[in-house]
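Good morning C.,

I know you're traveling, so I'll keep this short. The sequence:
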Amino acid sequence: MTHTSPIRKDLLPMETKVDISLFPVTAGINSLGHLTIAGHDLTALAQTYGTPLYLYDGATVRGQLDRLKTLFKQYYPGDAMIAYASKAYFSQSVAAKLAALGAGSDVVSLGEIRVAQRAGFPAEMIHLHGNNKTEAELRAALEWNIQAIVVDSLDELAFLETLAAEQKRSARIWLRITPDLNVNTHPHIETSHSDSKFGLHIQNGEAAEGIRRALASPWFKLAGLHTHLGSQIFDAGPYSQAIGMLFEVAAANNYIPTEISPGGGWGVRYTDADPSDDAEPWVRTVAEAVQEACNRHKWPLPRLVLEPGRWLVARAGVAVYSVGTQKTTPSGTHIVAIDGGLGDNPRVALYNAHYTARVVQRAAAAPTEKVRVVGKFCESGDVLIPEIILPPVERGDLLATPASGAYQLSMASNYNFAARPSALWLEEGSVEVMQSGELPDQPGWLVYQPDQVG
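The tokens, ready to paste straight into the viewer:
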């Protein structure tokens, strides 16, 4: 649902010297000293919708998408496409907005396929990923006649061929090629090394065998090659190397791809210590690598497909929490506990992710106290920020964590039977509820009901 309201002057961003560049592009500090997004006071939003609360800024998402489109026009003379990696965060509302903006979608499950269908994505702008796709997922992709089923193994190639033959329906496919490269990122989000569970490895001959089998089958249309190096990558060099390897394995097997995708994975800033995350080095490097390879082989330019997920939505998202208990340990660590944590954001525990935060009601206040921000879940690893300097806080204050738009809500759980939070889409003058918060005292949303067992 959408609520519209006049924009009050006291909620508009005011000029301030405080660096809030990690927050959405519409972020500001109003005359009350409160943090705002798209003109909305985060204190007022928290009072209305409760906390934890996730906010998405529409202007930031559109700006990120427009930036990629501009870079494509600047650096790539061929056809190009942006496919949103839905696993970063997908809801029916977000999907519909991205479809209306002309983006494609990279889906990885039957659920994401159905959301994308209902959202109005054209079939020719959808591709299906996954290292162990189910029969139901493959059948749904075949029936929808999507742009590409991204085949991940020789086993899957044979299974898909059987399904396509049964349906007497040609399958349009890409092959996911693993170049056996190591990139500088967390091991859990590195996907291109020689021991990766993903893709057809070049090193052991699987990639070449996959190309040969796909070309020989009457049930496949081998449209292109795909690779994905991992996530949170700030060095564009490996992309160039991987693209060169894709073209070499294609040439060695007498195959000219009409589509090439080097995946996504370009990094985003989570803290002030992170490097610039402008996509220009990424798009320029990828575009130049494809053009150079085509010139070398005298091939026509393929359609170039990028799959940003985190890069499109991370900065647009802000998580808002309420401060509760505080204590100081015998070793001198001052602990500030919030009402969220591991349940809505497992990234810190999974990837040793780093975050920062601001006190919403005193967004420009000078930081003076070193604290550790922890969640409320029964895990010692439920720590949101191990060390940060904040202004003094008290129970009921709000903490806003920027760059919270990706791989948080999409990975949220009901651990400890906690309720998952609301998510709002913000525009100047309007608030749309994209995801209603669950009600912890009404357990109808719980999957496990003891009286139904047996």
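Safe travels,
E.
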